[in-house]
Each structure stands twice: as structure tokens, then as C-alpha cells.
Amino acid sequence: MFARVVRAVLVVAAALTLAVVPAPSRADEPALAIGCATTHPYEPAVSLTDLRAGIETNWGFRLTGAYWTDERYRPVVAVVWRTLDTISCTPYLDTLHAKVGALELSATSIGGWTAGDYGLTKADAVSLDFPQLLTTFPDDPGHVARLFVHEITHAYTRDRSSNPPYWTDFLALYSRHGRFGTYGGSASETFSEVVGYFVARCAAGNPYVASEAAYYEFVKNEVFAGTEFGPAPGQPLACDGSGTGPPSGYESAAAAVRAAVADRKAAAAEIAANGDVRYESLSAPGATAAG
After folding, report:
1. Is the residue at 285 inside a domain?
2. pTM for the full model?
3. CA distances from 222 to 165, 214, 217, 219 (A)
4. How far is residue 129's CA from residue 276's CA, in Å, rounded to a whole number?
5. 189 with 156, same domain?
6. Start-end of H helices in the chain
7. In terms of domains, do 69 and 148 share one?
8. How many domains does the chain divide into?
9. Beta-carbon count within 10 A of 135 CB
10. What's the pLDDT at 183?
11. Are 132 and 194 within one domain?
């Protein structure tokens, strides 16, 4: 028990170590796994005005709304930029623009729980609720990528009423497998979900487990021509963009804290069970116990 208590005392030192190891810059932290080779790297020092112009020039969209050049929303703009870059070598964007031309991306505030839509808030435009997306970004940057791809995919399927081959194939798949994940109860919403999560494999709660291999193979082959943005469903997934896991310094410090906290809790339980009163609190001076 004494050895465990000694290890537990190290929680303070480990916590201090974590405090001085800089966490990844959220605007620069990749929200995506693998995909196309980078052709237009995101540059944090570039102005948002130039990033907005770059999205229009590089990937053929028309951007509207003041939020695109509002520095508070740089993390959202960065994810949109990286998402477009990582899908740019696939047929997706060319197919999308062949159907809708220079699709308008409106940075706006929608209100309510909806973070984006196609053609509802603004006709023939993808509307993105930047304030809401910024709220979810710190905990789940992958959500921004998934939501963005989900909404532009609604534009991608605007020709579905004519039953093109990809849609006929998908309807047959949908009739067998039904809803994907927890959102949406229609073929249209499910199509956008399977495409959005295919790209944003690092989004929290991604439904691509091994049992969803049929949807995965459909999107890989019929939408992205074989390009993948992560390993096969059910396989380990690294979400730092390099395939090596989180930044080593930050993660090692975090792991030390987690281990020390576990030791501290175990030691406290053992002390309480033995009625041992010789040990004082292991909290840092001035700290408040969180339980």
C-alpha cells in the first residue's frame, strides 16, 4: 500500500507537467484521418480573407456571410479547408459541381438545434451555423467535417428523383440495411450520413463498425472511387492526421495523470478500508478535491 501511496503523490507533479505541455492548437488540429495527399496545406498565418478566396478558387464554391472572415471562427474555416483538400483527388467535387455549379456556402446563424442545411435556410445554398459549429468544435472537431460533408452531399443527391445508377444502387442497399447510426429516417438523410462519416472518420460516435461494411464499401467505390479516409470499419483509427496518435508530449503527460489519479483513488479506498489515519490529503496545496 505504501508504494501505491507514494505513486499517488506523483499526481501533483504529473498534473504540473501536463499544464506546461502545450495542448494542440485547436485551429491546427486535424479533424480528419487519411485521404488525398495535401495539395493546398492549411496555413494558420494566412488571413481569413485569403482563406475564403482560396476555398472559392481552389475548390469552386461561392462563399457568403461575414463569419468566413471573422477571426473567432478560424477553427471552423480551417476544418472546411482541410476537408475540401482531403477529398479533392476523388471524383466527389467534380461530380458535385457538375450537378449544381458553384455551390453557395453560407456562413450564418440558423437557430435551434440544426447546425446546417441545404436549401432550407437559403434556397440552393448550404447554410452552416458557424456559432453552433464553434461550440461543438473543442470537444469534437470531426463533427464540423462530418456536418459539412453531410450538407454538401444533400446537394450531391439533388438528381436522385431521376434515379441515376448510384441512387438506384443505394436504395437497394438502404432497403436491406436501413438507418445508419441514430440520425435521420429517410434514404436521403442516410446517404448524407454514410458519406459524411466516411470522410470524417474521427467524428465522435462514428457508426462505421464492422457490421456497417456494406455502406462503407458502397461509399468507397461509388462516391470516392476507392479513396479511403481511415482503415476498414472496426480497425484501429488514429486521428491526429499522421497515423501515430496524439502529440507524444501531451499524451504522455495526460497518461501519467490518469495513472496517478487511478493510484490515488485506489490508495484512498484502501486507507479507508483499513481505518488508517496516518495519511493526509494528497491534493495539491490550495486544490479542491473533485471526487
Report:
1. no
2. 0.73
3. 10, 12, 8, 5
4. 56
5. yes
6. 2-20, 48-59, 74-87, 92-100, 130-136, 141-156, 165-177, 187-199, 213-222, 248-274
7. yes
8. 2
9. 11
10. 85
11. yes
Same domain as 111, residue 12: no
CA dist list (Å): 61 to 100, 103, 126: 10, 5, 10
In a domain, 289, yes or no: no
Average pLDDT per block of 10 residues along the chain, 291 residues long = 41 34 38 77 96 98 98 97 96 97 97 91 97 94 95 98 97 95 91 97 94 97 95 84 34 38 48 42 32 36
* Identity of the amino acid at 255: A
- The answer to whether residue 124 is domain-embedded is yes
- Which helix (DSSP H) or strand (DSSP E) does residue 129 occupy? strand 125-129
Q: Is 53 found in the same domain as 129?
A: yes
Q: Is residue 242 part of a domain?
A: no
Say what the pLDDT of residue 240 is: 61
Contact 27, 44 (CB under 8 A): yes
Query: Which residues constitute the domain of residue 212?
Result: 48-222
| Amino acid occupying residue 260 | A
182 to 189, 206, 207, 267: CA distances (angstroms): 11, 10, 9, 41
Q: Cβ contacts of residue 151 below 8 Å, gap of 6+?
A: 116, 117, 118, 126, 127, 128, 192
